[in-house]
Hints:
The chain is of the alpha+beta class. The chain is 33% helix and 33% strand. The protein contains two helices and four strands, in the order βαββαβ. The protein has helices at residues 15-26, 53-63, and strands at residues 3-10, 31-37, 42-47, 66-67. It has a four-stranded antiparallel sheet, covered by helices on one side. β2 and β3 (42-47) form a beta hairpin. α1 crosses α2 (53-63). The radius of gyration is 11 Å and the shape is globular.
Amino acid sequence: MTVTTTHTVVGMTCDHCVAAVRSEVASIEGVGTVDVDLATGRVTVESEAPITDEQFAAAIDEAGYEVGT
Length: 69
């Protein structure tokens, strides 16, 4: 079973930002696909099991950005 979640990330301004966010989120256990839309700040994650908001927020913090509301 694949679980898809979408979050908003603020502070991304370039392709390097996208790569940093994608890399950190992909490092969460069970995450398969990470799609980052720079224009909207939306990050769509496909994972084997649900990831918690805390897991996502920690990965985004590690990449140097913030989770939007």
